[in-house]
Write a structure and sequence with these properties.
It is a single chain. This protein is of the alpha+beta class. It has a single domain, classed as Muramoyl-pentapeptide Carboxypeptidase, domain 2, CATH 3.30.1380. Helix content is about 35%, strand content about 15%. It contains 9 helices and 13 strands. A 4-stranded mixed β-sheet has the order 7-13-11-12. Helix 4 crosses helix 5. The N terminus and C terminus are likely disordered.
Length: about 260
Amino acid sequence: MLAAAIGLAGCAELGLPGDTGSLSFGKVSGGLLLRGARLPDHGPGFTTRDVWRTRNNRYGTDEMIELVTGVAFRLRGRTGGADLVVADLSARGGGGEGAQAFHRSHQNGRDCDLVYFTRDAKGKPHAEETMRVFDADGKAKDGSGDTIDVARQWLLVRELLTAPEANVQWLFMYEPIAQKVLARAVELEEPPALVARARATLRQPGDSARHDDHMHVRVYCSAADRDAGCIDVGPLERLDREGLVARVSLPTELAVALHRVAKLR
């Protein structure tokens, strides 16, 4: 397999012949990212903070970066002047080199952490400098007076679920906050199908932190990445209904070997 990888890598410096975009290999908890795109530190409608800029887990698949920048761009002007704060994505080459110390996943460019939209003690829209922990009522536990801005958080969830750039698989969120966000959608009389999809997508994970300080976005493998060895874990029914599930044509082990050889060249 390694010999085959070397042979293929010799045909194309980037690792997979004929492909010039990003490639996501394996699972989010044990994968790699080839030619990942870097999210700028600032852009229309979004920003980051020094703590995440210093870690440099700023890389994702092309689809993930387009999703974040596209959603932020469309939300600008609708968030009370407070930009979306983007925390960790993946390390430059994926894997556990940069993300493992902070995350169990974030290893193949398909995960991104977004700080909750909040209001300060005076009720003004606020872009957080850090991740504050919120209680079941949506109030910060540190006494700052900050609260979850449920209205803006629903706008973000809605934009993510309807975005053309990528197919969102999960939005990990503390369940009491998710309930408030869903109640906002019902209050606005959003389409029942959209509310149902939001309910199916918003989840408090049972095997990691409960996400009471940020929202975690995960997107499905793109069709091209799935063919190259990207592995979705979890329900695929929606992708199957939309005809987006493709057969994996390249073994994951070979894809990973190709990636490692390319990094050595």
